[in-house]
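REQUEST FORM: STRUCTURE PREDICTION
Request ID: SP-0412
Submitted by: Lab K.M.
Chain count: 1
Length (residues): 256
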Amino acid sequence: MLVAIARDVTERRRSDELLLLAATRDPLTGLANRACFHDGLNRAFSHANLAHIPLGLMVLDLDDFKQVNDSLGHDAGDALLQSVASRLSEAAPGSAGVARLGGDEFAVLVLEVSHAEMLSTMSEDILAHLRAPLIFKDRILDYGVTIGAALFPGHGSTPDAVLKSADIALYAAKADRRGGSMLFQSRHRTEMHQHQTLLSLARSAIREDGITPFYQPKVALANQRIYGFEALLRWRHLGGEFSFRAKLPRVSTISR
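STATUS: Completed
RESULT:
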């Protein structure tokens, strides 16, 4: 006697697909999420390392995204992110992997790039595509995008190292010219470390009350009246003394 048992697994399969989608895709933009991106990045690097072929990585950040959210609301911010994701997918090379890393930060992993100039050209092409005006509810959204780019193996020998180099290039681009692109250079790492060191020292000086202000008046020569003050900030650090000048708000009326 032959007994056959049949079971409909359509719903189970559908549930598994939804779980996989939730685990790998950004729900707002439909792009790969951070976890999926890092998984793809590690696999691409393993292949590139074995095959001795270069890879390109671009990290993108929206300029003044918070201002869009604050002035027009989160609906406008979500629409902006969705439009940038769509345009980025259109502008990226066909073999590239596009992801939203979180917030207003995106990444593009380029599998077919042979030299730095090629990656720089791709970055500029993507920026040109993203600069097209975006209209939301009859209003033009004013936004910009800045790109930091890095190459494997020239700018790092591991996925984390190259991603860090691209982040540093993005930081340098933000400081130098927002709305542009920057390819990583070794000096960028040095400049960022110097900046972070100065910020850390300044915070320590403020926390430890190590800055002493000296105030001096600003006098109008025409009538000999005081119209403001200038502060000279002296910071004693490791046996040395550093001085900074700070302009204080203009004084409207001062009795003599």
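NOTES: The mean pLDDT is 82.
Reviewed by: T.R.
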